[in-house]
Write a structure and sequence with these properties.
Blueprint: H1 2-32, H2 39-56, H3 61-82, H4 92-114, E1 130-133, E2 137-140, H5 141-163, H6 165-175, H7 177-182, H8 187-209, H9 219-234, H10 239-259, H11 267-278
Antiparallel strand pairs: 1-2
Helix pairs in contact: 1-5, 1-8, 1-9, 1-10, 2-3, 2-4, 2-8, 2-9, 3-8, 5-6, 9-10, 9-11
């Protein structure tokens, strides 16, 4: 029975971290209609900035969690203003090609600046060690922290989209950008803000993941694949779908890694294939209307 609870906790740990990252990708698609291939590189950049701030500059983890995502968001503003703004009205394939080029540029830039080595960041002293949970289960404190951060992000985003004026403006821009502009909403500012917000979420995921995953130039490539699986399972442009897709993928990894380790690498793709066969637009996605 303890194996079941351990697998469930691992599933929540993995799933909620994936949600933090993938929801930024899905928000950018939902509002801007851009599939951002560079999202994984922004996550990677957040992890490398965490290493730089904590190891090289001696900052605390908590200060790093505040500063590093803001740095990535500032870079996203430059990317939006200098490049992406010219392709928003084009076919979605143009944004795919441009963001894929950005992915390659950011990957090589990371190799030039930090090298091709692997770096490790320790969790803060407060979050090191293990905790004993009911039932005698011992579990890493940092993993419990990741689960807590994920739940906080889920709640905060729900409140943002459903209870604030900013969230309503973002939803209006996603539904009909021209009508939103006619209602005196500064859609250019909204677009830049949404892209920066998506990058900020990716970087938050990178900083949170840094103490539990090796930091290397290929980490963004893996996470973008997992993020796409999450949004495809849940449904492109759906916030609840992103949460559901992340939990589903977390369960696949958590239980697959514990009980079916020999096939765990292919289980996410099998799960995505099954969902697409049953619901081509994802578990909570909506069919596009012409």
């Amino acid at each position: 029975m303890s194996s079941f609870w351990m697998a469930l906790l691992n599933s929540l740990d993995i799933g909620l971290l994936l949600f933090i990252i993938a929801v930024g990708l899905n928000i950018v698609f939902g509002v801007l209609n851009v599939i951002n291939f560079a999202h994984g590189a922004l996550y990677m950049l957040g992890a490398y900035l965490a290493y730089t701030c904590m190891i090289m500059l001696g900052m605390s983890f908590w200060l790093t969690l505040l500063i590093a995502p803001l740095g990535v968001a500032a870079l996203a503003v430059l990317i939006d203003r200098l490049m992406l703004r010219f392709i928003y009205q084009r076919e979605i394939s143009d944004s795919l090609l441009l963001t894929f080029a950005l992915l390659l540029i950011l990957n090589e830039s990371v190799r030039l600046i930090w090298g091709a080595g692997i770096y490790v960041v320790d969790p803060p002293a407060l979050l090191q060690g293990t905790a004993t949970l009911p039932g005698g289960i011992t579990y890493p404190i940092y993993s419990l922290f990741v689960v807590t951060v994920g739940l906080v992000v889920v709640s905060a985003l729900w409140l943002l989209f459903n209870r604030t004026r900013v969230g309503k403006i973002m939803r209006a821009a996603a539904l009909d950008r021209e009508m939103a502009q006619a209602l005196c909403i500064n859609t250019k500012l909204v677009i830049t803000g949404v892209f920066a917000f998506g990058a900020w979420l990716a970087a938050v995921g990178g900083v949170v993941a840094a103490p539990m995953r090796a930091i290397d130039p290929g980490m963004g490539d893996k996470i973008i694949i997992e993020s796409f699986i999450v949004v495809v399972i849940g449904g492109l442009g759906s916030f609840p779908g992103t949460f559901l897709g992340a939990i589903v993928l977390g369960l696949i990894y958590g239980f697959g890694g514990r009980f079916f380790p020999e096939v765990n690498l292919i289980l996410p793709f099998l799960g995505m294939a099954v969902v697409l066969l049953i619901k081509p637009h994802g578990l909570m996605g909506k069919k596009a209307t012409s």
